[in-house]
Write a structure and sequence with these properties.
The chain is of the alpha/beta class. It is 32% helix and 22% strand. It has one domain: NADH:ubiquinone oxidoreductase-like, 20kDa subunit (Rossmann fold). Strands 2-1-3-5-7 form a five-stranded parallel β-sheet, sandwiched between helices. Helix 2 packs parallel to helix 6. The two termini are 32 Å apart. Bound molecules: iron/sulfur cluster.
Length: 176
């Protein structure tokens, strides 16, 4: 059987959802039987490839870089999965939404530093006015809630998707 091309990525997240993914322990052997991981922090591939079958996306869309990344993922991926509450609802990253970008930058780069505070104008990706859930930007096919989602839930979903089955209905098209 042809292996599924599986990608994982994070946007504005803490990487806790990826830690939970790693917690599937020996379940990774099952995933390895079914899929090749073609992109993500677990493999050393720099550019998001074409013809990805399943992408797990952790984190909210918070910056211009996130926006470009998530659009590229949608263009090149058959099934996009929002992995975890930051992707599904914008969760923790959206706590800054009430404050406005200037206040956040001043707090982080001027008020909370001990010397030579400076708001970066280069290298650090420009923040969007608010952090948004992934399905606000692109069509999402499957939602895996939780902060982080349990390893078992992730394994069940990934095993289903990599076997050509859609996960249970409560995880599908919840918002779209
Ligand atoms: S959902 Fe929770 S664990 Fe996952 S990236 Fe967000 S804060 Fe971290």
């Amino acid at each position: 059987m042809k292996k599924v091309r599986l990608a994982t990525t994070w946007l504005d997240g803490c990487s806790g959802c990826h830690m939970s993914l790693l917690d599937i322990d020996e379940g990774i052997l099952k995933v390895a039987e079914l899929a090749d991981i073609v992109y993500g922090p677990l493999v050393d591939i720099k550019e998001y490839p074409e013809n990805v079958d399943v992408a797990l996306v952790e984190g909210a869309v918070s910056s211009v870089e996130d926006l470009e990344k998530v659009r590229t993922i949608r263009e090149r991926t058959r099934i996009v999965v929002s992995l975890g509450d930051c992707a599904v609802t914008s969760n923790v990253p959206s706590m800054r939404n009430q404050c406005g970008v200037p206040a956040i930058l001043e707090r982080a780069y001027l008020e909370n530093v001990t010397a030579e505070g400076q708001i970066p104008r280069e290298v650090v990706p420009q923040l969007l006015p608010v952090a948004r859930p992934v399905h606000d930007i692109i069509k999402v096919d499957v939602f895996i809630p939780g902060c982080p989602p349990s390893a078992q839930l992730i394994l069940n979903c990934v095993a289903d998707l990599c076997s050509g089955r859609m996960p249970e209905p409560s995880l599908r098209y919840k918002f779209g």
